[in-house]
Write a structure and sequence with these properties.
By secondary structure, this protein is mostly helical. Helix content is about 75%, strand content about 0%. It has 13 helices and no strands. Helix 8 crosses helix 10 (about 205-235) and helix 10 (about 205-235) packs antiparallel against helix 13. It is found in: Cell membrane. This is ABC transporter permease. It is a multi-pass membrane protein. It comes from Gordonia jacobaea.
Length: about 300
């Protein structure tokens, strides 16, 4: 975790630092500024120091929860406090959709391999994977928001659960399709395993064989996928948040990249890296609960 944390933050900071743009010019809005003002701003945001000095100053502040100041004059930590709760709620909705829906449909498809509804589920999930997320978002926005009036078209400042349902479904749609296909493949393979035949030969009822033996072992790769998908969903919500006008992490990072605000971009990515690492630790610990062959001392 320590190596990944420092390596990821260093690479992100380096890439933002090497972007061929002048953040001071962007801060001025294209208007000419005096050399004295430019020098003052560069000193204020530590842009007059070497790259490695800027990075170590930033890391030192992170350990004190000081993520620097954005070019708008706001502390980055305050910006994060507004953006992260929105994206966390959106991500939780997407996780519920992809986890519950994906596992249920995957089990149904795997237990009925080769039947017409198994084929139908595979076709539908393949279509969802093939459609770009921005196309899926606009289609859902038009059908469910504009035409049928089931959900609000945009979110804006309305950040309650009801307004986040539709973008949450859109955000979790592709992962839902992957989980369906992954669960279906694992369930179909485990149904023919020796331990399943042994459990059936011992007289165990089919529901117990499926829930205790088949499903428990089939969920190991699914849990791995879900654990790694948390960070992907939070960091990859740029398109979804843009379509539905959601002031979350994705939109904030996008605007910060355009303005060349290295402290804002790196701070948000740093938190996303920490979330990703924690989720991977949780996944590793869940292996022991799902697989009886794994035990941690």
């Amino acid at each position: 975790m320590v190596i990944v944390f420092f390596g990821a933050t260093f690479l992100i900071y380096a890439m933002v630092f090497l972007v061929p743009s002048d953040p001071i010019a962007a801060l001025g809005g294209g208007k000419p500024m005096s050399p004295a003002l430019i020098a003052q701003l560069r000193a204020q945001y530590h842009l007059d120091q070497p790259f490695y000095v800027q990075y170590f100053n930033y890391i030192g502040g992170v350990f004190h929860l000081d993520f620097g100041t954005s070019f708008s004059g706001q502390p980055v930590f305050d910006v994060m406090k507004r953006a992260f709760p929105v994206t966390v709620n959106l991500t939780l909705i997407a996780l519920v959709v992809e986890t519950i829906g994906g596992v249920v449909f995957g089990v149904i498809s795997g237990l009925n391999k080769g039947r017409w509804y198994d084929t139908a589920i595979l076709i539908v999930t393949l279509i969802i994977i093939a459609i770009p997320i921005f196309v899926l978002g606009f289609v859902a926005q038009y059908l469910l928001g504009v035409k049928w009036h089931l959900f609000p078209v945009t979110v804006g400042g309305n950040l309650d659960f009801y307004h986040l349902i539709l973008p949450g479904f859109v955000l979790g749609a592709v992962s839902f399709a992957y989980i369906v296909r992954l669960t279906r493949s694992e369930v179909a393979d485990n149904l023919t395993a020796d331990y399943v035949r042994t459990a059936s030969a011992k007289g165990l009822r089919r529901p117990r064989v499926i829930t205790v033996h088949v499903l428990r072992n089939s969920l190991i790769p699914v849990v791995t996928f879900i654990g790694t998908d948390v960070g992907v969903l939070m960091g990859g919500a740029v398109v979804t948040e843009g379509i539905f006008n959601i002031p979350g992490v994705g939109g904030t990072i996008y605007q910060a990249v355009i303005r060349g605000e290295a402290p804002t971009v790196v701070s948000f990515v740093t938190v996303l890296v920490l979330i990703y690492l924690v989720c991977n630790i949780v996944v590793d610990l869940l292996y022991a609960a799902l697989d009886p062959r794994i035990r941690y001392a």
